[in-house]
User: What shape does this take?
Amino acid sequence: MKQMVSSALIAGFVAGLLGALLQYLLVQPDIVMAERYESGELVHFAGVVAAEAGHDHSTHDHGTAETTTEHDHGTAGTTEAHDHGEATEVSAFQRQGLTVLFAILTYCGYGLVLMGMINLAHQIGIKIGLAQGVLWGLAGFMSFQLMPALGLPPELPGMPAADFEARQLWWAVTAICTGIGLWFLCYGTAVWQRVVGAGLLAAPHVWGAPKVAAFGGIVPPELSAAFAAHSLGAGMITWMVLGGLLITLWRTDPAK
Amino acid sequence: MNTTQTTSQTASRSSALMQAIFVTLIGATVVFVAGFAHSQTLHDAAHDMRHTTGFPCH
Assistant: This one.
């Protein structure tokens, strides 16, 4: 028990630090950029709007409800942000510090879940080496990030999304179904067990994730695409390190 | 004596099972707090990480 918890926490701590580093290098720039669109400091197609405005000054009121472009078309290219940062402004350092803290917390949680499940597999006689640990990490990534992302794509600030609680519920159900489904698929011995596994993997997606009512994102598609790739990539690397490290630490227990 | 041995084996097996489940549940609770809890303070603090790890946000 002690060995399980300490292995999970140490691996979670290290993976969390790595996750935070990758987050800082890959993902944070996308989030910060998206927030500049969300606040109205930047406007997608601002250059195009400026060009149009140059041609036609008479149309004052084109219904750009989404964008916060003000009416002064002369300088549409450099729309001033009026009310960004009305919420309490935290320093970038403090903000990044909290991200590191929560990365560690999140991956410690993931580490404990992974450890409990690996221990369960060990108890039913499945041999777990370093390679299996890394694969378990990948299975964790699939359960907690990749498969939920199939229905709820990685979401930048400023992107429209369906009802919050419905999404949380679907996310949690998908994570659990994927985890159990992978277990049945990989460790099942009878055909029916594998069928159940595959069924569990597919079920949440057949049921369907909560959908957005309409597209109306204010963030450029290039940015959201980069964010999706960056966040999934960073997650995958972190999870693989978590799984590998967890096994390495856990197996130092002489009882294993 | 044989029976005692079997019983203690069963007991330790079921306790090992409970421990694995217990560790999993603690982990799930930690994940819930980090990724799901609605508290505004928690949400703000965890905001960037929630977006990065793909938790539903906003």
User: Anything to note?
Assistant: Chain B has a mean pLDDT of 83. Residues 5 and 52 of chain B are 51 Å apart (CA to CA). Residues 2-35 of chain B form the longest helix (34 residues). Residues 2-53 of chain B form one domain.
